[in-house]
Write a structure and sequence with these properties.
The structure holds 2 protein chains of 2 kinds. Chain A is an alpha/beta fold. Helices cover 31% and strands 23% of the residues of chain A. In chain A, strands 6-7-8-3-9-10-12-11 form an 8-stranded mixed beta sheet, sandwiched between helices. In chain A, strands 2-1-4-5 form a 4-stranded antiparallel beta sheet. In chain A, β1 (2-11) and β2 (18-28) form a beta hairpin. Chain A is globular and about 65 Å long. The relative contact order of chain A is 0.14. Chain B has 14 helices and no strands. Chain B has helices at residues 2-29, 34-39, 45-55, 61-73, 87-122, 127-141, 144-158, 170-173, 182-208, 211-219, 223-253, 255-260, 266-276, 279-307. The longest helix of chain B has 36 residues, at 87-122. Chain B is globular, with a radius of gyration of 24 Å. The chains are: A alpha/beta, B mainly alpha.
């Protein structure tokens, strides 16, 4: 459905680019939810914006790599160019539902606008479709809400409206950039449930970006762990949580509070992620890795397949089972 | 809505009262006297006393204020000491010129400043943007009297397209007399259009970085539709209030341009009346200007309500 190959996003001058996303590859199958997880600044949002063609301009640019939507190359295409080229069935929802809707236009207008682009239907019919979409995202009283303004809705309701706008293109792929981070925990659960349901019902693939391992465990089918612009480990969700291979993934899991962890201090991964472009050679995690060896500092780590569908970017991965 | 109207009327009344007291007090603090202006150096003390009594200037200042305020409430702004005519008709003559001049100027400002500001914002960072922004900076920096003099030189003296000075009323000469206001309004528009241009550009750029603009782009609508449907209206909010205050300022503060083009406007009337110590005219004009500011303020607030549904009138 969606295939991203060696995506590299850079900032700075052409002659001396600094890669903030360095050769990221992943695939997304029909109806699958892939969780892209990592800490702030690891490049996960830049990855999602690059996939959508929404990188801020002027600013970071896609320097190398391919984004294929159903086999068609949509790299570097902005959404309107993708729609023109007939590859419009990819949509995105964002972290901040409070500011992601235009404050001076009615909800109905804002959904109908997306409907008109993708379905080529006129005003009244587009509003009918907008209402259907609001029903689909389970917004109470959809008919009334069509004529409401965003400030009259709560954060959770606005995120539902954002999802309705995204669904207007009947997406095969939905990119969700931390859509629940700004919401209360109870609302977060509802929105995650809604996304899972829509994914099953509409056979839609979701690329779900988050920094929250708990959300990943709850929602995703597969996980890609990102660190310093690279995907360091990919696996099915149970496999990853059961047998993490990368030292970073392991560290992230140790940081998660659990119900019976008691009152002791949570462990942390010491140090800071490296600044983009500051690691000249070797593994990007070497500075913070508990099991670092001399080779790690000089040699670029290989991408090993630990088991079927479980890849790890490490020369000396943790032993979770048989290794090649 | 009605409670808003009442509240608004209440604050307006208080503002007017305060303004009228301040105006009255300050004018009488200024040294000098209309008597000397009228009678000259050769007047005898008897003549001076007689005229002072006739004009009511021998009474205590509080009594003078109350008499004046009472007449104002009845719609009578008094008589001009210099013109020997009702203040209202003196102001009306100046207001015709000033209102038409300010309106014509704002039309230039709107048709030049706003669209060019939008173009500069959409082409932001290109040579076109830099050229337009640079030109705007230049226009905002040149004094209006200089622009005025060159407009007269080129379009009146050399080309003879427009008259160079004066303004006969359109009520006497018909609408063609508006041609007298073309050059002065252009001179006034130059710096104001430049400021509106820069404001429009900055406001558009601010809005284009908003999250909802990214949402609009994500929908797949074309870039110019993103501008038209999502950026433009939000960017206009900042521009509208600037429009209101520019207009109000043009009504009363176009003294230099009115002088260069010998226009009988409000700005010149105020300055000349101050020199003549023509108290009733000064008081009347300033009161009218205060009322105009309050009205424009109200219009700006109401237009906010139209542009932004989040604004509640309370």
């Amino acid at each position: 459905m969606l295939s991203v190959r060696d995506l590299t996003v850079s900032v700075g001058p052409e002659t001396a680019p600094v890669d903030i996303v360095a050769g990221v590859s992943f695939g997304l199958a029909k109806g699958e939810i892939l969780g892209l997880v990592g800490e702030s600044g690891c490049g996960k949002s830049m990855t999602s914006l690059a996939v959508m063609g929404l990188l801020p301009q002027p600013g970071p640019r896609v320097r190398a790599g391919r984004v294929l939507l159903e086999g068609c190359d949509v790299t570097q295409l902005q959404p309107w160019q993708r729609v023109e080229a007939g590859h419009g069935r990819m949509a995105m929802i964002f972290q901040e539902p409070m500011t992601s809707l235009n404050p001076v236009r009615r909800i109905g207008d804002q959904i109908a606008e997306a409907v008109r682009v993708h379905e080529g239907i006129s005003g009244a019919a587009a509003l009918v479709r907008a209402r259907e979409l609001l029903e689909l995202v389970r917004l109470p009283d959809p008919k009334m809400q069509l004529s409401a303004y965003p400030h009259q809705l709560s954060g959770g309701q606005r995120q539902r409206v954002m999802i309705a706008i995204a669904l207007a293109c009947r997406p095969q792929v939905l990119v969700a950039d931390e859509p629940t981070t700004a919401l209360d925990v109870t609302i977060q659960v509802q929105i995650l449930g809604l996304l899972r349901e829509l994914c099953n019902r509409l056979d839609m693939a979701i690329l779900f970006i988050t920094h929250d391992m708990g959300v990943i465990a709850q929602l995703a089918d597969r996980v890609a762990v990102m660190y310093a612009g690279r995907i360091v480990e990919t696996a099915a969700v149970d496999e990853l949580f059961g047998k993490p291979r990368h030292h970073y993934t392991r560290g992230l899991m140790d940081c998660m509070p659990s119900r019976n962890s008691g009152a002791r201090r949570l462990p942390t991964i010491s140090g800071q992620p490296p600044l983009p472009g500051s690691v000249a050679a070797g593994c990007v995690f070497a500075l913070r890795c508990a099991a670092v060896r001399d080779e790690c500092r000089v040699a670029t780590p290989p991408r090993l397949e630990a088991s079927q569908g479980h890849e790890v970017l490490c020369a000396f991965p943790l032993a979770g089972g048989e290794l090649p | 809505m009605w409670s808003y109207a009442f509240k608004r009327a209440g604050t307006t009344a208080v503002t007017l009262l305060a303004a009228s007291i301040i105006i009255f007090a300050f004018i009488h603090i200024v040294p000098g006297d209309p008597i000397y202006v009228l009678l000259g150096d050769t007047a005898t003390p008897d003549q001076i006393d007689a005229l002072r009594h006739q004009l009511g200037l021998d009474q205590p200042i509080i009594l003078q204020y109350l008499t004046w305020a009472g007449h104002v409430l009845e719609g009578d702004l008094g008589r001009s000491i210099f013109f020997q005519a009702p203040v209202l008709s003196v102001i009306a003559d100046g207001a015709e010129t000033s209102t038409l001049l300010a309106t014509m100027t704002m039309i230039w400002v709107a048709v030049i400043g706003v669209p060019i500001g939008m173009i500069a914002a959409v082409r932001h960072g290109t040579w076109l943007d830099q050229g337009l922004s640079g030109a705007a900076m230049l226009m905002a920096s040149i004094p209006t009297f200089w622009v005025g003099l060159y407009l007269i030189l080129i379009f009146a003296a050399w080309l003879g397209w427009f008259p160079s000075s004066g303004y006969p009323s359109i009520f006497e000469g018909g609408v063609v007399n508006l041609r007298y206001l073309v050059l002065p309004s252009l001179a006034l528009a130059a710096p104001n259009a430049a400021l509106i241009l820069r404001l429009t550009r900055a406001s558009m750029l601010d809005v284009s970085r908003e999250d909802y603009v990214r949402t609009a782009r994500a929908k797949g609508i074309r870039p110019w539709q993103v501008v038209r449907r999502h950026i433009w209206r939000n960017a206009l909010l900042a521009v509208v209030s600037a429009f209101g205050f520019t207009f109000a300022a043009l009504l009363s503060e176009a003294v230099v341009t009115e002088t260069v083009f010998a226009l009988p406007g409000i700005g010149r009337l105020v300055v000349q009346s101050i020199l003549r110590r023509d108290y009733p005219v000064i008081q009347g004009v300033i009161l009218v200007i205060v009322v105009v500011y309050l009205l424009i303020n109200l219009i700006v607030d109401l237009s906010y309500r139209l542009l932004d549904p989040r604004v509640e009138l309370q």
